[in-house]
Amino acid sequence: RVWPSHSKILEQSPATALFLHWFFAVILAAATSSISTSIAYLVLVLLYGYTVVGIVGFFVAVGVLYLRYSKRREWTDNLGFKPWGGPTAAIVYSCTCAFMIVGVFITPGEESPFSYKATGVQHYIVPVVGLGMLLLGYAYYLVFAKLIPRWRKEVLVVEREPIIVRQGGRQDGEWVQILEVVEFWWAARQSGKEA
């Protein structure tokens, strides 16, 4: 469903999220419209790979390591299995992603298929746009989490209801979260509390 409702139907898509994805897709398509289609495709695929595989992958791997070694979380106590190799995969993956995040700022050689001579696009465009989108998303969060509540003198209240089932519907399956129903609204700030 496109428009959110109060029913608990799986796979609802909030209209605001769809609009944001569409808006930035149009911006990226318009920004690459002046170059050849093969180069535009290369830039967009590299941008996707940089942001989704590199940046998001890095934060996921570091988050798994944080959960693994954080004494407050006691995350490993709730696991029904011990992964083979322990945290090795998360360490290797976070280091690989960190290299991808930083390594693309190194100027490629003249004969590289990613050089300015071959593509007509500077090598730093993809990481700058990727990191810029991440910072823009953080700014978007700050507007809704800090600025608007101060301006409206209201607080954004968010309620989450996780839908957790046994994996595969089996009695011995691990517990898996398949959905999280999120509802939010603006409420008057209680006196004496700062948002």
List the helices and strands and how they pair.
Blueprint: H1 15-31, H2 37-69, H3 88-103, H4 116-119, H5 125-152, E1 154-166, E2 175-188
Antiparallel strand pairs: 1-2
Helix pairs in contact: 2-3, 2-5
What attributes does this structure have?
single chain; alpha+beta; 2 strands; globular
Provide a count of the helices: 5
Number of strands: 2
Main sheet overview? 2 strands, antiparallel
Q: Tell me, what's the shape? A: globular
Strand order of the largest sheet: 1-2
Quick structural overview:
The protein has helices spanning 15-31, 37-69, 88-103, 116-119, 125-152; strands at residues 154-166, 175-188. It is α+β, with helices and mostly antiparallel strands and 195 residues long. The mean pLDDT is 84.
Structural write-up:
The protein is of the alpha+beta class and 195 residues long. Helices cover 50% and strands 14% of the residues. The protein is built from 5 helices and 2 strands, in the order αααααββ. Strands 1-2 form a two-stranded antiparallel sheet. Helix 2 (37-69) runs antiparallel to helix 3 and helix 2 (37-69) crosses helix 5 (125-152).
